[in-house]
Fold lytic cellulose monooxygenase (C4-dehydrogenating).
Amino acid sequence: MKSILALTTALLATTGVQAHYIFQQFTSGGTKHAAWKYVRKNSNPAWLQNGPVTDLSSTDLRCNVGGQVSNGTETVTMKAGDEFTFTLDTAVYHAGPVSLYMSKAPGLVKDYDGSGQWFKIYDWGPSGNSWPMRISYTSNIPRCIPDGEYLLRIQQLGLHNPGAPPQFYISCAQVKVTNGGSTNPSPTALIPGAFKSTDPGYNVNVSLYC
């Protein structure tokens, strides 16, 4: 009986993990970098490395569990307007939107916990009844934002049955932006605080268009 229980528990854990995913690689300048080189690695145990965040009041919503510190993550230098790609360990499994946010560090981004203002730079939404469930997502650094060091945050909101809280799949890259503009991004929001249980789909519009 004990061995059957252990096997069942292991099977359930494995099944749950297989339904999860994590943004762990960053591509810039045409180079796909090693996992976690420029992306902050969360502090979850290995078996839960790709687990979601569901607490809307938690600072883990910024850059995932333990993501308020750099933990040796490097910072990639990019020009405003440059293309970048986030790649997951496995393709997105749950339907839901994918969004990109940025937050400017007051100094070096490696020392920044993401407690400042965030602005949204892009959304991938549904096309008809189809959601963009991919293994990688590509966009560009906005041309109009000022030079400086930023957290570049990607979020996939895994929607579930009515009454069940959505799952936030989150990672942050550390980016130094050069050749930027002079636009002060607006509107902005704090995380946590940007997402409320009363928001449709737990989503909020803090978009920046350049």
